[in-house]
Amino acid sequence: MIAAIIPxxxxxxxxxxxxxxxxxxxxxxxxxxxxxxxxxxxxxARGIDHIGVISADPTVLTLANARGAEALPDHxxxxxxxxxxxxxxxxxxGAAAALALPADIPLVxxxxxxxxxxxxxxxxxxxxxxxRDGGTNALLAWPPLALPFxxxxxxxxxxxxxxxxxxxxxxxxxTPGMELDVDRPDDLLLLAETDGDTQTQRLVRxxxxxxxxxxx
Length: 216
Fold this sequence. Notes:
Number of domains: 1
Distance between the termini: 46 Å
Low-confidence stretches: none
CATH architecture: Alpha-Beta Complex
Strand content: 15-25%
CATH class: Alpha Beta
Shape: globular
Structural class: alpha/beta
Number of strands: 7
């Protein structure tokens, strides 16, 4: 059994770095659109057995339930602690592996998720999909709690080091849909200009993000 866990910040706190470009309600709509796109991709992946969304935000948890995911209230209020809480929940239910991925990679495709899962090797290991700036945009670990979660700036190097220190087999997985995470105005511009018609892409185009970025 493989469980996918998607952590989401409380909506008033999410995507604060886009505050100069988007209003509070617009950032809220963006986060929910991105979560919807990621849930659609994870839900269509053949290799995922359970999907959990962990958040302290009731609106996020309601959306998770509506999209068929398990809503997990975040008791830790810290990204890495929340992931540990959620993965522990599924490990106790017999999960053999856990896939942690953020809600801000709206271009991810189900085939990419299945490809990452298929990259597993050995009895114990990790597959990591890095972001463009050295972060981590997906992390598959087996067994589920084989290494600590170290998401944040520069987390790719920290995850790789932690896996090697624990003797885990390590694979890096590069794919376009997992490389773009939306944190900065330029990310929104790239998202708007990339071919596709995801819920998030429709939203950023309706918000005329390209014109706003040029004026910031």
